[in-house]
Design goal:
The protein is of the alpha+beta class. The protein has 2 domains: about 180 residues, no CATH class; about 230 residues, no CATH class. Helices cover about 40% and strands about 30% of the residues. The strands form 2 sheets. Strands 1, 2, 5, 6, 9, 10, 12, 14, 17 and 18 form a 10-stranded mixed beta sheet that branches. The protein is elongated. InterPro entries: Uncharacterised_IM_CreD. Keywords: Membrane, Transmembrane, Transmembrane helix.
Length: about 450
């Protein structure tokens, strides 16, 4: 009879609440390993996508920043060194009085395998003028007006399609590849302009026409005393970015129209200076052709909530076991946890082909059905299996809503956790720890 009592006590110690909680906690920590492996796969797929993007940009043209036209004039000053006068050269940089840019930006979607990238072709026309150069105060001993150049900074010359037509006071000038002066830009085109001391009092008007391809963004530097930029495009997901916002942009399903107006008072560099005294790339503005489908980022964000979904689901199974006296084996907890981890892998794989939203729906329904069916097979209770189905549906719906939020995701997540904790605390009140008295036969 004493032997029977000892056997009953031995059966009860690993069925206690404390032991179950410890084992489930250890199981959750163990499931962090496959969950981390899934995150690693997502990051690897992201890296592959980035490599594909880099290859496309190399052939098409990357993010474009347009700067110019800017007039550059070589100047010289003399210094006495070792009782000898030495001649030193500095470039005078002159910004235009007026700069007006009109352009159309047409998106083009390119595929490389399963990866999709948004590129664009733009048709640009630039007009403006330099005013009366003889009125400038220049701190130099000599000014070589005859050796002046105009440059147009283009961040990626591979994007130039066809000819670049440049007119200077209605006379066509031949562009040269590369930058003669690298004080302000490292990439672009240069043009020798016909300046002389006799025509410095004239107004020098210019107009430029060329086609430029690129990817992601098209940006501008406001180098004019008055800079105006007007763009239109067939892309309906623009993201206006940079130091200045457009004035009353028009957005619709057919695309967008946007215009900017910037004056010299809005920036931190003057109309002319010598050498490298100022930088002009801190006031860029323009547009990103934003691609709203970023399924890898959303998949990775969802996986960060994986431990929460796993913990809540296993807690529900624990409550069912304790309240309804339905015994669940540790191996069964493990299988349920692995099914929940599998969701994030299935989501990532499907989103590469059918988009994130549809992939989320298919993956969630698959895992919910799998876990619900398995839970019914374990506990043989349709009502409890139904509540597991409802619980998982609410969890995955809540996670989907969180992934759609940006500014309020942290707040919504905390509210959801507070509600979940309250529900768990209420459910825990139904758990009664009973002591079994041993009868001596």
């Amino acid at each position: 009879m004493e032997l029977i009592t000892n056997e009953r006590n031995e059966e009860q110690w690993y069925q206690t609440l404390t032991f179950k909680v410890v084992m489930i906690g250890a199981l959750v920590l163990l499931l962090l390993i496959p969950l981390g492996m899934v995150k690693s796969v997502i990051r690897e797929r992201q890296a592959t996508e980035a490599e594909v993007e880099r290859e496309l940009f190399e052939k098409w043209g990357g993010e474009q920043v347009l700067t110019g036209p800017i007039l550059h004039v070589p100047t010289y000053y003399y210094l006495k060194e070792d009782e000898k006068l030495t001649k030193h050269k500095r470039w005078l940089h002159v910004m235009p009085e007026l700069l007006s840019v009109n352009g159309s930006v047409e998106p083009e979607v390119r595929y490389r395998g399963i990866y999709k990238k948004v590129l664009y072709n733009s048709d640009l026309q630039i007009e403006g003028a330099f005013e009366k150069l003889d009125q400038m105060v220049i701190n130099a001993d000599e000014v070589d007006w005859e050796s002046a150049y105009v440059t147009i900074g283009i961040s990626d010359n591979r994007g130039i399609k066809g000819e670049l037509v440049f007119n200077w006071n209605d006379h066509a000038l031949e562009p040269e590849a590369g930058m003669v002066i690298t004080d302000l830009n490292n990439s672009g085109v240069s043009l020798k302009v016909p300046l002389t001391k006799e025509n410095l009092a004239d107004k020098f008007a210019f107009d430029v026409k060329f086609k430029l391809s690129g990817a992601k963004s098209l940006m501008f530097n406001p180098i004019g005393k008055i800079t105006k930029v007007d763009l239109e495009s067939g892309w309906n997901n623009p993201s206006f970015t940079g130091a200045f916002s457009p004035i009353e942009p028009e957005l619709n399903e057919e695309g967008f129209k946007a215009g900017w107006a910037v004056t010299h008072l809005n920036r931190n560099f003057p109309q002319h200076w010598l050498g490298r005294s100022f930088q002009i790339d801190t006031h860029q503005f323009g547009v990103n052709l934003y691609d709203p489908v970023n399924h890898y980022q959303k998949s990775l964000r969802s996986a960060k909530y994986g431990i929460l979904i796993i913990s809540l689901t296993l807690l529900v199974f624990l409550f069912i076991e304790l309240v309804k006296k339905k015994e669940v084996q540790i191996i069964q907890y493990l299988l349920v946890g692995l099914a929940l981890v599998l969701f994030f892998s299935v989501l990532t794989a499907l989103s590469e082909h059918i988009g994130f939203s549809w992939a989320y729906l298919v993956a969630a329904l698959s895992i919910i059905t799998l876990v619900t069916s398995y839970s019914y097979g374990m506990i043989r209770d349709k009502q409890q299996a139904f509540w597991i189905f409802i619980m998982l549906s609410v969890l995955y719906l809540f996670l989907f809503v969180l992934l759609q939020l940006n500014d309020f995701a942290f707040l919504a997540g905390n509210i959801g956790l507070l509600i979940a904790l309250g529900a768990i605390m209420k459910a825990s009140l139904k758990i009664k720890t009973a002591t079994t008295s041993t009868e001596v036969a």
